């Protein structure tokens, strides 16, 4: 399998995991904070470290090459992303999987791909530059269409259908939109943080690790920064709501299973994305990040439809499908840009 086909396969797989991990949030309603605590512990620390440790002989040795300033900024951006991740979890409960993913992914894809692009020397003379910009513009149009579909759904859906699908109305719907935008900006900072930790990846390669596997090292620093606010917020809510007992008495096995599965799918998305970006080389964090978000949007739309979020809104459903078709077109253009590398 050549590198182009492998990178495309990996980004599709990463998009599947990213578009799927949010399903666990909709299936868990009592004491949301207990679920989020399990997700934070496993998704942001345990699973990333175990995965990296299996593939990289000396994880901390690779991280140690980073300067104090680089570690600080990677940790800081990771913490800012961590705050936005909390907002994203709330957004899914307020506006549903499809719409929250649509807004979050659009903001994250644009900001998260353009910032690393501008950091590349002489980026505007790269053969793939115009195709990247074209792909981003078309993806933006697709996301606008999907967002419009979500707003149209909110107007057309009956109160009964809204309750069944878990979609909120009024002020909570507006908060869900704002939280989704903030989550997208945070996701972009996550990619910037990952890019800044690249020297640790190079250090892992010097240990004899394949570049796509060495990419896992960078996530250790980034995600630990995100772990702090997520863990703290969960503990605060558990204490405030006096819901610690949920972790012990109210079907704890279900909480742990859902939390760990969600954590695995979530980090698998990042881990596999990093592998694909490493294979693509210098422009990987730019092209892969956008493709990653586009394909995850398609999967999240599919799951949103299966969950009944678009029930009774035939017109909005058609607009959603149109938006996804536009995303596929942008994905094809970005895939072609990758062949020009």
Structure write-up:
The chain has 15 helices and no strands. It is globular, with a radius of gyration of 20 Å. The protein has one domain. The chain is mostly helical.
Topology record:
Elements: H1 3-20, H2 23-26, H3 32-55, H4 59-63, H5 68-95, H6 97-118, H7 129-156, H8 159-165, H9 171-196, H10 198-206, H11 211-214, H12 216-240, H13 252-280, H14 284-306, H15 314-339
Q: What profile does the largest beta sheet have?
A: none
Count of individual domains: 1
Query: What structural class do you assign from the helix and strand content?
Result: mainly alpha
Question: What is the CA-based Rg, rounded?
Answer: 20 Å
**What gap, in angstroms, lies between the N and C termini?**
18 Å
The beta-strand count equals 0
| Poorly predicted ranges | none
CA-based shape: globular
Helix % is over 70%
Can you summarize this structure?
The chain has 341 residues and is mainly alpha-helical. Helix content is 82%, strand content 0%. It has one domain.
Key traits:
single chain; 341 residues; mainly alpha; globular; 0% strand
């Amino acid at each position: 399998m050549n590198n182009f086909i492998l990178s495309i396969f990996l980004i599709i797989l990463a998009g599947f995991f990213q578009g799927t991990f949010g399903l666990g949030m909709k299936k868990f309603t009592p004491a949301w904070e207990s679920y989020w605590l399990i997700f934070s512990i496993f998704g942001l620390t345990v699973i990333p470290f175990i995965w990296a440790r299996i593939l990289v002989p000396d994880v901390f040795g690779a991280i140690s090459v980073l300067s104090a300033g680089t570690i600080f900024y990677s940790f800081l951006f990771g913490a800012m992303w961590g705050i936005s991740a909390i907002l994203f979890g709330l957004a899914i409960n307020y506006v549903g999987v499809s719409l929250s993913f649509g807004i979050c992914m659009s903001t994250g894809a644009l900001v998260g791909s353009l910032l690393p692009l501008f950091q590349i020397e002489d980026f505007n003379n790269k053969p793939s530059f115009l195709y990247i910009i074209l792909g981003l513009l078309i993806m933006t149009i697709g996301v606008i269409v999907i967002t419009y579909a979500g707003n149209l759904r909110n107007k057309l859906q009956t109160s009964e259908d809204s309750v069944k699908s878990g979609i909120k109305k009024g002020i909570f719907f507006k908060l869900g939109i704002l939280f989704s935008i903030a989550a997208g900006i945070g996701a972009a900072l996550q990619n910037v943080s990952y890019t800044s930790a690249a020297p640790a990846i190079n250090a892992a390669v010097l240990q004899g690790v394949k570049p796509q596997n060495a990419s896992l090292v960078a996530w250790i620093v980034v995600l630990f920064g995100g772990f702090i606010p997520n863990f703290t917020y969960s503990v605060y809510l558990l204490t405030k709501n006096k819901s610690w007992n949920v972790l012990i008495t109210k079907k704890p096995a279900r909480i742990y299973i859902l939390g760990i599965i969600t954590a695995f799918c979530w980090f698998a998305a990042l881990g596999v994305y990093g592998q694909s970006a490493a294979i693509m080389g210098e422009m990987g964090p730019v092209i892969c990040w956008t493709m990653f978000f586009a394909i995850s949007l398609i999967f999240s739309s599919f799951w949103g439809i299966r969950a009944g979020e678009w029930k009774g809104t035939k017109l909005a459903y058609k607009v959603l499908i149109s938006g996804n078709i536009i995303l596929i077109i942008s994905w094809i253009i970005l895939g072609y840009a990758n062949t020009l590398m």
